[in-house]
Write a structure and sequence with these properties.
Layout lengths: L1 E6 L11 E6 L4 H9 L5 E4 L5 E2 L5 E7 L6 E4 L2 E5 L4 H10 L15 H7 L2 E2 L2 E2 L4 E8 L4 E4 L4 E4 L2 E4 L4 E8 L10 H11 L19 H7 L6 E2 L2 E3 L7 E3 L5 H19 L8 E2 L1
């Protein structure tokens, strides 16, 4: 389905941002491939939009929503998941099939594709620890199978040696002998420490080496600080909340203010996790 001038605030968890010129949601990988074969416009891939901010001027291109690419299957010891599958659903599926290791994913907002693109993690685990292989698609609609060795993977970073490809699925080996985390405990911890239910993008900044971004922000007196409708969460300082119809500019200005303050007070440069288009 192709839509024109679709507001990206409907598809980003911050509930803010401009419109995309075209918005395409393929029903499956084949339809996505056919679309790309005829497309000449810039592309933005979006899953759950939990780590994305589109500037108020919008995106002049095609936003491709991977929501329907959510197949899940198990064969032998391996689980294959589409890029559009939510991490929470993947975690539940693994646990239901007595495959252990995916429990931490239940606490991460987002989809498989987005998690692979940034090496998402929580509670000491990261998604690429469990990846056997991935399927990618290039801008011509061709599918390739890639191995972890085809990527440079580090903390909250995945650098693809083939930059014009994006993830469409992945094969995982959740191979721990027993649960390393209790999902109920993880979700309770998340709900206690994070502003769940409010429009945010999750953690805004990466943790600098030997530091926690939230502690740096809190110690700088920025909890509750607002610019326009965007505010630093009182519950978790590494979260920005869209508290009152914040524009994308409000959010971006608040991010810059936090970075400038931390640089002045601690001489540390905060790097964003959120992607700003």
């Amino acid at each position: 389905m192709l839509k024109l001038n679709e507001p990206m605030s409907k598809h980003c968890s911050l509930r803010s941002g401009g419109a995309t010129s075209e918005f395409f949601q393929p029903v499956d990988v084949n339809e996505l491939s056919d679309f790309l074969k005829n497309n000449k416009k810039p592309i933005l891939m979006v899953g759950l939009g939990s780590n994305l901010l589109v500037r108020d001027k919008g995106f002049d291109g095609v936003t491709i929503h991977t929501k329907s690419l959510k197949e899940l299957s198990i064969s032998s010891d391996f689980i294959e998941s589409g890029a559009g599958t939510s991490l929470a659903k993947l975690s539940r599926f693994a646990l239901a099939n007595l495959k252990y290791g995916a429990e931490f994913l239940s606490a991460i907002p987002g989809s498989v594709g987005g998690a692979l693109a940034m090496n998402a993690g929580a509670f000491g685990s990261e998604i690429w620890q469990y990846v056997i292989s991935v399927k990618t698609m290039n801008l011509s609609g061709e599918i390739n199978v890639r191995l972890p060795s085809d990527f440079e993977i580090s903390y909250r970073s995945t650098i693809h040696r083939n930059s014009n490809e994006f993830f469409v699925s992945a094969v995982f080996n959740f191979n721990l002998k027993e649960q390393n985390d209790n999902v109920v405990d993880l979700l309770q911890k998340r709900n206690t420490t994070q502003p769940i239910g409010l429009p945010s993008c999750g953690s805004v900044f990466k943790n600098p080496k030997n530091h926690f971004a939230a502690k740096l922000i809190e110690s700088s007196g920025l909890k509750g600080y607002c610019i326009g409708g965007a505010c630093v969460s009182e519950k978790h300082a590494n979260y920005i909340i869209n508290q009152n119809n914040a524009s994308a500019l409000d959010i971006e200005n608040l991010i810059s203010h936090i970075q400038d303050t931390i640089k002045k007070k601690h001489n540390i440069e905060l790097e964003t996790e959120i992607i700003i288009i």
